[in-house]
Structure formats: C-alpha cells, structure tokens
Design a protein that fits this description.
The structure holds 2 protein chains of 2 kinds. Chain A is an all-alpha fold. Chain A has a domain at about 40-135 and about 175-240: Up-down Bundle (Four Helix Bundle (Hemerythrin (Met), subunit A)), CATH 1.20.120.80. Chain A has helices at about 20-55, 55-65, 70-95, 100-130, 140-150, 160, 170-210, 220-240; one strand at about 5. In chain A, helix 3 runs antiparallel to helix 8, helix 4 runs antiparallel to helix 7 (about 170-210) and helix 7 packs antiparallel against helix 8 (about 220-240). The longest helix of chain A has about 35 residues, at about 170-210. By secondary structure, chain B is mainly α. Chain B has one domain (about 10-90). In chain B, helix 1 (about 10-30) runs antiparallel to helix 2 (about 35-55). Chain B is flat and about 60 Å long. Classes of the chains: A mainly alpha, B mainly alpha. At the A-B interface, strand 1, helix 1, helix 3 and helix 8 of A face strand 1, helix 1, helix 2 and helix 3 of B. Strand 1 (about 5) of chain A pairs antiparallel with strand 1 of chain B.
Chain lengths: ~250, ~100
C-alpha cells in the first residue's frame, strides 16, 4: 500500500491553494462537514427509533413481523455491492481510466435502481396490507389478511393464536408508531438514494463528454463519500427494522 | 511532493467479501434466539461493518489528521445525542408527581 502520484501537481490547482495536498484536504473537510449534518439529520430519527422501541417493545416486534426479511437482506447486499463499485469508480478516477470509471458508475447506478425497485415492491405490500399510517392503517385488517393468507400456524399476537380477533387491538396505536418510523427512516434514506442516482447521472454525462470539471478526481471522491454514507445508514437500518428479536 | 493515496482494488474486494460475510452473520444470528444478546450481536456487527466502510471505502484510514478529526466529529456527536436515553432509564428513579 504505497502512495502514488496521481496527477501532476500544477494541474487543477486552484489559485487560492498552496498545493494540491492542501486543496484535496479542503475538499475532504468540506464534504465531511456536510456529512456531519447528515449524521445529525439521520441521528434524530435513530434516537426517536430507540425511544419508541424502548417504550413499545412488543408493538415493534409485532410490526417487524410484517417486514420481508428476504427482500431486506437482498437490498443490503445490493447496496454493499454498489458501495464496492462506487469505490472502484473512485479508484479508476484516481488512475484516470475514464471509461472504467464510467462503467463502474453505470453499474452503481443500476444497483441503486435495483435497490429502489425492491423498496417499491416492499412499500406496495405495505399499502395493500393496510399498514400505511395516515393513509390506510388498520392493524386488525392487516392481521386478518395475514391470517387468511398464511397456511402456516400464526403466532403474531396471542389473540390471533387463539383464533379470535379483538375488536380493537391494544397494540394497534403502538404498532402504528413502528410503521411511522419505518416509513420516515426508509423514506429519507430512499430520497438520499434518488439524489445519489441524479448526481451519478450528471457525472456519467459529464464524463462521457470529457468535461474538464470531472477530469480532476476529487469531485468523484466526494460522490463516493456521499454514497458510502448512504450505505452506512442502511447498514444500521437493516438490523433495526428487519431483525427485531423477540 | 504531491501525493494522493490510491487504495488497490484487492483491498476493496477483500473488504467487500468481509462485509458480505458479516451481512450473512447478521441474518444467521437473528435466526437464533439469544434474548437481549440478539440486539448486542446485531449492533456490534453493524458497527464493525460501518467502520470497515468508513476506514476503507471512504478512505479515512489513509487521510490526514485533520480529515480524521472532521470525519469522526459527527459520529462522536451522535454518541452524545444517545446520552439522552439515560433520561428515559432514570426518570423513574426519583418519584415526582405528574411525570
């Protein structure tokens, strides 16, 4: 692991900087300042998740039973893979292999679309199952649907196991909180994925045109940092939303 | 000297393989009933995965001290924020009317 000379020092050195080292560092510090605000942004949601899960452990367990763990796991793998291809895109940008960089960005973009596609299917299921707060949330209806659809023995909540449905489930309100947090967190994350795709599109177009702004590798590194941050958020969302233990 | 670290492809691929193995581990452990230890295991693995992405994919391992400070500051702030949870645990310790 050795340091290599990427580009001649004088090239792409803006006049306010001493040298490229100082310039590259200020790119990184600027981007990390932005990412710190993103940590605060998502951090507030993570803390509300923690508070409500502490308060309503049973409802969170019951709500998570409606998550499609297979799709969630696939999406985590898709996003981790897209992080690898993004890292490779940055690698090729540093080595000035433009077409390899474009290729890796295109793969990353398709993986990001794949992620959103899976999320689309998952959201669709939640709409059908009456699990969208503020739109059609009906906990009992969701449980009836689940009971009818399932051939295996059901053990979501004790009343269902007994075969009788209470008029109003005691945990309906609390379970709704789980879905509010689910949609807020995955929704905000999905918005970040969409923004990432848009920036990737701009980069691909500019790289194909060989625009001078993207010949310098630091802007590409900034896109990489953003994308890896989005990946880190999902690394935590996956176990917190999909894998709640009893 | 104007140098910039370039992480070799082999390092990225190794980190990726470890990340995928850890993903499988997260899923596998969630299938076993360990009580509260399920949470501990899931969060420990998530923190290891995030650290790998942070150090290698985001390249913080190879960056300057100033970047280190800036990059870790946000996460340290998050730890401070989670200190709020102490209030939820300790509020019942001293009985106060109306709480």
């Amino acid at each position: 692991m050795s340091s290599q000379l990427v580009q001649p020092s004088e090239e792409y050195l803006w006049e306010q900087y001493e040298d490229r080292k100082q310039q590259d560092e200020s790119y990184l510090v600027g981007m990390w300042t932005f990412l710190s605000t993103e940590i605060m942004f998502f951090g507030a949601l993570f803390i509300s998740y923690a508070v409500y899960r502490y308060k309503y452990p049973e409802a969170f367990y019951a709500g998570h039973e409606y998550m499609n763990v297979a799709l969630g796991t696939i999406n985590t793998a898709v996003l981790l893979t897209s992080s690898l291809t993004m890292a490779l895109a940055v690698h090729f940008a540093q080595k000035r292999k433009r077409w390899m960089q474009i290729g890796m960005l295109v793969i990353t973009m398709f993986l990001a679309f794949g992620f959103l596609g899976v999320k689309f299917v998952e959201y669709g299921d939640k709409f059908r199952e009456h699990l969208v707060p503020g739109y059609n949330f009906e906990w009992n209806q969701a449980n009836v649907n689940r009971l009818e659809a399932s051939t295996a023995p059901i053990n979501i909540i004790p009343s269902l196991k007994a075969g009788s449905l209470p008029a109003d489930s005691a945990i309906s309100h609390d379970a709704q909180m789980y879905f509010i947090i689910y949609f807020a967190m995955t929704g905000l994350h999905a918005i970040h994925v969409i923004i990432g795709i848009l920036i990737m599109m701009v980069f691909i177009v500019m790289l194909v045109a060989n625009h001078p702004s993207v010949r310098y590798h630091m802007p590409m590194e900034m896109l990489g940092l953003y994308w890896h941050f989005v990946d880190i958020v999902w690394i935590f969302l996956y176990p917190l939303l999909y894998l709640i233990p009893r | 000297m104007d140098t910039h670290h370039i992480t070799p492809i082999s390092v990225y691929v190794k980190v990726y393989v470890i990340l995928m193995l850890l993903l499988f581990a997260t899923w596998a452990i969630s299938r076993i009933q360990l009580g509260p230890w399920n949470n501990v295991a899931a969060m420990t693995i998530a923190i290891i995965k995030a650290t790998l992405v942070f150090l290698f994919f985001m390249g913080v391992k190879y960056s300057s001290k100033l970047t280190w400070v800036w990059a870790t500051a946000g996460f340290l702030w998050l730890l401070v924020l989670f200190g709020v949870l102490i209030d939820y645990m300790s509020r019942g310790w001293i009985p106060v009317k109306g709480w």
